[in-house]
Amino acid sequence: MKNLITFFILINFIIINGFSQTLIKPNYALKSHETLEISKIEISSQKTMIFLNVENRRTDGYFCADKNIFIIYPDGTRSRLISSKGIPVCPETYKFKTIGEKLNFELTFSPLKQDTQWIDLIEDCSENCFSFYGVCLNNDLNKKIDDASLLAENAEPAKALMSFIKIAGMIDNKNSGIEGLIYINIIKLAKETANIQKASEWYTKLKSSDIPRSELYIKHLNSQGIIY
User: Fold this and answer.
1) Rounded CA gap, 57 and 63, in Å?
2) Which residues fall within 8 angstroms of residue 171, CB to CB, at 6 or more apart?
3) Can you point out the beta strands (E) in the chain?
4) Model confidence pLDDT, tens digit, residues 164-195
C-alpha cells in the first residue's frame, strides 16, 4: 500500500509539473544593451522565468526595468510580465556602487505557448529600453550555434563560416527568428576571410528574405560598415 501511494504521488507530481526545460545562456540575434545578458531561461507548464544580468561600466551607473516588459511570439502576440525580482521598477533605480558590478534579476511570465522555438523579449518604455530579438529556445540549435561560435573565437573563421552555413541549411520555419543571427555571422565571417562574393551573396539573401526583423539586422551590419 505504501509503495502504491508513493507511485500515485509521483504520477501526480509529473502531471502537475508537466513539461520543463532549462536553457543556459541561449543565443539571440540582436540585443540593445552591450552588457545585458540572458543567463538562463526556465520554461515549465506553470510559468516562464528569464534570468538576466547587467554589468556596470560607468561611475554613476544605474539600472531599472519598466513594468511593461513583454515576450513577443513569432505570430506577434504578446505575453506581459507578471513579476520581477532583484530589480527596481522604473522610475525607481538601482545605483551601482562600483564599475564592473553586476546586477542579477529575474522576470516571470505566463507559460509559453506550446512548441515555441524562439521569442523576442521587449521592454516597452520611453527611453533606454532593453530588447533581445530572436532568442533561441531550442537547446540542440543553441549547441550547434555555440560550437560554431567557438570556432570563430578560436581564430578558425573559415571553419566557423562553414558551420554557420550548414546551420542555415538546417533551420526550418519554426526557427526563423534565429536566422538573423546565422546570417549576420555568415556575412561577417565571409568578410573576415576575404570571401567578398559570399558575404555579398548572403547580404543580398538577408535583404530580400522574410526573416522576422530583417531590417534591424541590415541596419546592424550597416552600422559596422558592412554594405553590399
Assistant:
1) 11
2) 141, 178, 179, 182
3) 20-24, 30-31, 36-44, 48-55, 62-63, 69-72, 78-80, 83-85, 94-95, 102-109, 118-123, 131-136
4) 999 999 998 889 999 999 999 999 999 999 99
**Regions of the chain with pLDDT less than 50:** 2, 4-11, 13-16
Rounded to 10 degrees, what is the CA torsion of 114, 115, 118, 121? 10
Whole-angstrom distance, CA of residue 65 vs CA of residue 69: 8
Give the span between the Cα atoms of 181 and 186, in whole angstroms: 9
Look at residue 158 and give its three-state secondary structure.
Answer: helix
Instruction: Give the residue among 185, 138, 140 at the shortest CA–CA distance from 162.
Output: 185
In whole angstroms, what is the distance from residue 184 CA to residue 131 CA? 18
Q: Give the contacts of 224 (CB within 8 A, at least 6 positions apart).
A: 188
- How is the chain split into domains, by residue range? 19-136, 139-223
CATH of 19-136, one of 3.80.30, 1.10.10, 3.40.1350, 2.60.40: 2.60.40
CA 59/CA 142 separation, integer angstroms:
35
d(CA 57, CA 99): 5
C-alpha cell at 37: 545578458
